[in-house]
Amino acid sequence: MLQQRIHMRDQVTNRLEIIMGDDKPPFIERLEEFATSLLFIAIIIILVRL
Q1: Is 4 helix (H, G, I), strand (E, B) or coil?
Q2: What angle do CA 20, 34, 29 make, to 5 degrees?
Q3: What pTM was estimated for this model as a whole?
Q4: Run of H or E residues at 32
Q5: DSSP H/E element including 9
Q6: What is the model's pLDDT at position 42?
Q7: Of 14, 44, 38, 48, nearest to 6 (Cα)?
Q8: pLDDT digits (tens, 9 = 90+) for 2-31
Q9: How far is CA 15 from the centre of its chain?
Q10: Which residues contact residue 32 at a Cβ distance below 8 angstroms, ignoring those fewer than 6 apart?
Q11: Phi then psi for 21, rounded to 5 degrees?
Q12: What does each C-alpha distance from 32 to 10, 16, 47 come to in angstroms?
């Protein structure tokens, strides 16, 4: 089996993908983004009313 050199950038990208859990289903990912946006909007509204 041939050993291929792997660039450090590729190794870092692969590790980040593993850590961040990029294997989530798209629906869960969209739900997460929506919930985060909703939370930020709620915080902004609360801060504006103070």
Answers
A1: coil
A2: 35
A3: 0.49
A4: helix 26-49
A5: helix 8-20
A6: 96
A7: 14
A8: 566 655 566 666 666 666 665 667 788 889
A9: 13
A10: 24
A11: 70, 55
A12: 27, 18, 23
